[in-house]
Amino acid sequence: MWRVLPALLFLLSLPAARAEALLSIIIDDVGNNYERARETIDLPGPVTISILPRLAHSRRVAEEAHRQGHEVMLHQPMASLHHNVLGPGGLTLDHTRADLRAVLSANLASVPYASGVNNHMGSLLTSEARSMRWFMDLLRQRGGLYFVDSRTNAGSVALQAARADGVPTARRDVFLDNERDPVAIARRLGEAVRLARLKGSAIAIAHPYPETLQVLRRALPRLHELGISLRPVSHVIAYQRSPETWHASSYPLPQVAKSSKR
Known about the structure:
By secondary structure, the chain is α/β, with parallel strands linked by helices. 38% of the residues lie in helices and 18% in strands. The chain has a single domain, classed as Glycoside hydrolase/deacetylase (TIM Barrel, Alpha-Beta Barrel). β4, α5 and β5 form a beta-alpha-beta unit. The protein is globular and about 50 Å long. The two termini are 27 Å apart.
C-alpha cells in the first residue's frame, strides 16, 4: 500500500474546483466472483456496477447492489475483433434482429434492476452500423434504458446509433486499470478527476481487481475535497444532455448502505 500513497497524495493536493463536477465510475465484469462482487458493492460511494449476464451470481449480485443503493447496469458481451470467447449471452454479427431481441431480453432478465447497458469487449460489433441500429432500437423499445459506449474500438458507431434512436447515451472517458498497479490506477483516477473538472463531467471504467478496489477504498471518500461529486451514470448522462438545466437537487445521491456481516 505504501507505493500508492504518493499518487493519492498528489491527487488530493490538486486545488479544489470552483464548481462541483460529476464523475461516474463503472465497475465492469462483475458476476463471476461473488466475494469480489461483495467487495465492490461495499465500496464507500455510489459506484455503478455493471454485471455480466447469466452467470452463477449475476442475479444475486444485481439484487444486492440495488438493495445497497448502487445503480446497476447490464455488461453486454459483444463480438470483438480478436474473436475472444464471449461467455453466456454474447452478441455476434451472425445474430438477426430477432436474435438480438431474444438474447437481450434474456440477459436483462438475469440482471434485475438494470438502468442501462454498456458493452463488454465489442470492438467488432460496435463498429457495425446495422447491428448497432438494431440494438439501440431494441433498447429504446425497452423504455428508459441508457447506453454507455465503453469505446473498445476507436471506430465504434454505438454512440451515434444511440443518439439517432433517441437512447440516452454517453461514452467512457478513462480506463482506470489497464495497468493493474495501484500507482498507475491512482494516476488514472487523477486523469478522470481532471477531465471531469475540465468538462463538467466524466465517466471512468474499472474492474473489480484487488489493486483497483484498494485504491478506490482510500480515494473515493476524498473526492469531494476536489470539488468532485461521485454520481451514478444516469446522473452524468442527464447532465451531459442538458448541462444548462441540470440541478443536483433533482438527482439526489442514492444512499449506499454501510457494509454489514452476512
